[in-house]
Hints:
Elements: H1 2-14, H2 19-26, H3 30-37, H4 45-54, H5 59-63, H6 67-71, E1 81-85, E2 90-94, E3 104-111, E4 128-135, E5 138-142, E6 145-149, E7 154-158, E8 163-167, E9 173-180
Helix pairs in contact: 2-3
Amino acid sequence: MEGIGKRVKSRRESLDLQVKDLSNLIGVSPSLISQIEKSKSFPSLVTLKKIADALNTTVGELIGENEARSRNPVVREDKRKIVKHNDKGTSSYLLSNYDPAKQMEPYVIIFKKHSDSKEIMTSNYPSQEFCFVLEGIFEVSVDKKKYTLNKGDSFYFNSNLPHIFINISDEDASLIWVVKLN
C-alpha cells in the first residue's frame, strides 16, 4: 500500500496539482487523497482508476506493475520478446526490459538467407541508430548510398534517412540494432 501512495503523490506533484485539485477532479474528499498518499487508506479499484485517469497515467503504473521489470537489467536469451517479423523471414527481438526512463532501445535482428529489414527497422520519429554485425554479410543502403558490412563491422546513421539492410549471405545472419529514443 505504501508504494501506491508515494506514486500517487509523486505523479500529482509532477503535474503541479494540489490535493484539493485532485480530489475535485475525481469527486472525493481531500482527506481521502491525503490518507491514500500517506498509506493510511487503500483506494477502491474504482477510485484508483479515477485517480489514474485524472493523473494521465494507468492503474498499472500507480500500483508499480512495471517497477519490477525496470529494476531487472537481465534479459535471458530464452525470454527475449519478438517485436516484429516480416514475410521475408526477418525477426527483431528486444534485448532490454521495460523502463520508462530508457534512452535507447536495443534489439537483435535475425535475417533468414537473403531477407531484408523492410517493416523491421522502422522509426516513426527522427532519431539515431547503431548496428553491429554479429554474423553474415549485409548490403546496406542509406540515403541511396550502398555499403557492405561483414561480421564485426558497425554502422551509425540517422533514422530519418531512407535505409534498408539486406542479408546477402548464403546463410542466416544477425546484427545488434540500437535506436536512440527521443
